[in-house]
Write a structure and sequence with these properties.
Pnp Oxidase, Chain A, about 15% helix, 4 helices, about 40% strand
């Protein structure tokens, strides 16, 4: 198979062949499928990102695409699909809150990842001091003001200045790995 320019070619070590389950775009697996499988192989925390729309209605979505951008000043990023039902609310708001889910929040994650659900009845929510919806048993939450919106592919990257955060030490985080939820202890063992 012909190599694409600019892509390193990784071959099996001498005396070792690839496992039968290995997949590669070079082996004929569609690149988009291989890409999704590769990203699913990266364990990630799970968040619910919330805001208020222009009418004062809470809106939110589940995200695993969440990361720190800067420690000083504190900035984070989260990625939102432009086809999400709540996209207009986030596009029109200058504030949002990232709630880091606890290991017992599987149902909350699934509800906020779905369309058409009454999402804010899935768990107990309060409000941050700045009025953003906050999951009461979240591991932590980060209250943010929008710094930038960057369009990339089919998503908008929301970059936020963190203006407040709360960490709850008594909860353990929910982890997403290979398209399933796990407790941190499960991922760390074996």
């Amino acid at each position: 198979m012909e190599r694409r320019p600019g892509r390193p070619h990784l071959s099996a070590s001498p005396g070792r062949s690839r496992a039968a389950a290995d997949r590669s775009a070079e082996d004929g697996t569609p690149l988009s499928e291989c890409f999704r499988d590769a990203l699913a192989s990266f364990p990630s925390g799970v968040t619910v990102v919330t805001t208020m729309d222009g009418e004062g209605t809470p809106r939110g979505f589940t995200a695993t695409a969440f990361a720190s951008v800067s420690a000083e000043p504190p900035k984070i990023l989260v990625c939102l699909s432009r086809s999400a039902e709540c996209f207009a609310a986030f596009d029109g708001s200058e504030r949002f809150c990232v709630n880091i889910l606890a290991d017992h929040h599987h149902g909350v994650a699934l509800t906020f990842a779905s369309r058409g659900a009454d999402k804010f009845t899935a768990a107990s929510f309060g409000n941050s001091e700045r009025g953003m919806p906050v999951l009461e048993e979240a591991v932590a939450f980060l209250d943010c003001e929008v710094d930038q919106r960057v369009e990339s592919g089919d998503h908008t990257v929301l970059i936020g200045d963190v203006v407040d955060c709360v960490v709850r030490q008594q909860h353990r985080p929910l982890v997403y790995f290979r398209r399933a939820f796990h407790n941190l202890g499960e991922v760390g063992s074996g």
